[in-house]
Design a protein that fits this description.
The protein is an all-alpha fold. The chain has helices at about 30-35, 40-50, 55-79. Helix 2 packs antiparallel against helix 3.
C-alpha cells in the first residue's frame, strides 16, 4: 500500500524539494517511484519535475533511463 506524503513546509529542498511536490494530486514523486525499478523510477522522476526544473534536459534524462531499461530487458531476454 502506498503511503501518502503529508504536505510539508515550503522550501525544504533536502527532504521535500518543491519540484517533486507540484502534482495536483498531492502525491510526492518519491512515494510513487520507490515502488519501481531504478531506471523506470528515475525516468518518471525526471518527467515529473520537467515542467518545474530543467525542462528539455530533464526529458532527455528520462529518455536516457528508458533506453537503458530497454537495453537491460533485451539483454535479460537473451540470457
Amino acid at each position: 500500500m502506498m503511503q501518502r506524503t503529508t504536505v510539508h513546509k515550503e522550501g525544504d529542498s533536502i527532504n521535500h524539494p518543491d519540484h517533486y511536490n507540484v502534482n495536483l494530486s498531492g502525491v510526492e514523486c518519491i512515494d510513487v517511484v520507490e515502488h519501481m525499478s531504478f531506471n523506470i523510477g528515475n525516468a518518471v522522476k525526471y518527467i515529473w519535475r520537467a515542467d518545474h526544473k530543467n525542462g528539455i534536459e530533464d526529458l532527455r534524462k528520462a529518455v536516457w533511463y528508458i533506453q537503458r531499461e530497454i537495453g537491460r530487458l533485451l539483454k535479460k531476454k537473451m540470457i
